[in-house]
Specification:
alpha/beta; 13 helices; Rossmann fold; 24 strands; 7-stranded mixed β-sheet; 7-stranded parallel β-sheet; about 450 residues
Length: about 450
């Protein structure tokens, strides 16, 4: 019923192959549930666009191994098949010295394959390979004998002669070829400084999806793939009933803010929140009767001019937040709360001015998993609470936080020094850390409670 699309390394082409598979399955009338290994936000947007179903992240570093298993089984109900897109290379993850719970690198695609006991299909970039493809495939195949290995997909194949050499090499090791994809330049998805350009900014995406579906129909070995995806009966998930609506929380969702884990939004609804989606970019006013704000990550630096020009919304937000409305802001959301965003050219654009600092874009990429300990209270955390998050940004705060929210310690890449992170105000949680709440229910529970308190309190100036 399910399989994992893995790469022998990053940039082997697994995202294109995954989207081609999803598009072809959808074209055949199948209900497909997709998943993405790791903390990524943008690839899941493309999955959802193709399948029409929210993609779910499987990340045991941000959650836990048991949560990954539960999330996977829960979302198999009511679908015909499931496809998981891996992260980086098959065995790329946290070093075993960081997490010792599994014999393969923690959080890797191989880790997910072993946790879920489903077969892996390896995408191999063949653009500079011929006979050596057999050694690569055989090495991956037997590196972990407990991993189910279904076969390989040959990507970026050149001429017919090139294909023949690859097939001959793999025949010698008796490895099934589940797809053959030629080198092609007619299907492209643009990217920028943090990865692919999100779906909402691509007006020609329907045409690209159609091309991907055709590519999948012609490129995959369907006789080999379909048995791996054959439907199996799945029990209805046991979900807690949603609480009666108690608060209205405004979710900033547009081209500037769109990095959200769907599980986080589901948890807010289950706890009694009505989610009101709106746009700080294009709306002329903030939503009515709101008791909380949630600003996810995204690309506010790309749309800084438009955000700065929306004066009415900025003034209303500033007034509401400064008079006590609980606000949760991650990464791009944190940047929006600053006095200004300075883009890559140095041009500065005024933002909300809630935090006395400027978000300055730069060349240095900050990337990695973090373990953070809360230093003080916010609408989401209490002093001493430990969370795990992920950072991925090219901006820095100048000056740095005078009231830091966390002491943050890198999990990977490994470092020894901790550092102050996030900005705390009584009614504001603002941090570069992206958090998945699946194994930290205290966060949405506390946020809901703070919003309830707001709903029952008169507006007062701080």
């Amino acid at each position: 019923m399910a399989l994992i699309i893995a790469g022998e390394r990053s940039d082997a082409g697994k995202t294109t192959i995954t989207l081609a598979l999803l598009a072809a399955l959808k074209r055949r009338g199948l209900a497909v549930q997709s998943f993405k290994v790791g903390p990524d936000y943008i690839d899941p947007m493309f999955h959802e666009y193709v399948t029409g179903r929210p993609c779910r992240n499987l990340d045991p570093v941000l959650t836990s191994a048991s949560y990954v298993q539960t999330c996977f089984s829960r979302h198999l109900w009511g679908v015909d098949c499931a496809v998981i897109e891996g992260v980086m290379g098959l065995f790329d993850g946290l070093p075993r010295s960081v997490e010792n719970a599994f014999p393969v690198p923690f959080g890797s695609t191989a880790h997910i394959g072993r946790l879920l006991e489903i077969p892996v299909v390896l995408v191999i970039d063949c653009s500079r390979l011929s006979g050596s493809v057999a050694a690569i495939a055989q090495g991956f195949r037997y590196y972990d004998p407990n991993l189910k290995f279904a076969g390989a997909i040959l990507n970026r194949v050149g001429s017919d002669r090139h294909l023949a050499l690859l097939q001959d090499a793999l025949a010698a090791v008796n490895l099934p070829i589940l797809g053959i994809f030629r080198r092609q330049d007619n299907i492209t998805i643009p990217d920028r400084h943090l990865g692919l350009v999100p779906t909402g900014e691509l007006p020609q995406l329907d045409s690209v999806v159609e091309q991907l579906a055709i590519l999948g129909e012609t490129g995959f070995n369907w006789d080999g793939l379909l048995p791996l995806l054959a439907a199996k009966p799945t029990a209805s998930p046991h979900l807690p009933p949603e609480a009666a609506v108690r608060v209205r929380i405004a979710i900033a969702y547009d081209k500037a803010f769109n990095f959200y884990y769907r599980d986080n939004l589901d948890l807010l609804q289950q706890l009694g929140a009505e989610l009101v989606f709106w746009s700080p970019l294009s709306d002329t006013q903030i939503p009515d009767k709101i008791q909380g704000f949630y600003f996810g990550g995204g690309f506010p630096e790309v749309f800084a001019s438009e955000l700065a020009a929306n004066q009415g919304v900025k003034q209303a937000l500033r007034q509401s937040i400064l008079t006590g409305t609980p606000t949760y802001a991650e990464c791009g959301g944190l940047m929006y709360l600053c006095e200004a965003i300075a883009d890559f050219t140095g041009q500065s654009y005024p933002m909300l001015g809630i935090l006395p600092t400027t978000a300055q874009m730069g060349k240095r990429l900050t990337l990695g998993y973090r373990k953070a300990i809360a230093l003080s209270s916010s609408p989401a955390v209490t002093p001493g609470m430990t969370v795990r998050g992920h950072e991925f940004h090219r901006s820095e705060l100048t000056p740095s936080p005078s009231q830091p929210l966390f002491t943050s310690h890198p999990l990977y890449p490994p470092q020894t020094e901790s550092f102050a992170e996030g900005w705390q105000l009584p009614q504001v949680h603002a941090s570069y850390l992206h958090l998945h709440w699946g194994e930290c229910l205290e966060i949405p529970q506390r946020f809901i409670q703070q919003c309830l308190h707001r709903a029952n309190s008169p507006i007062q100036a701080l």
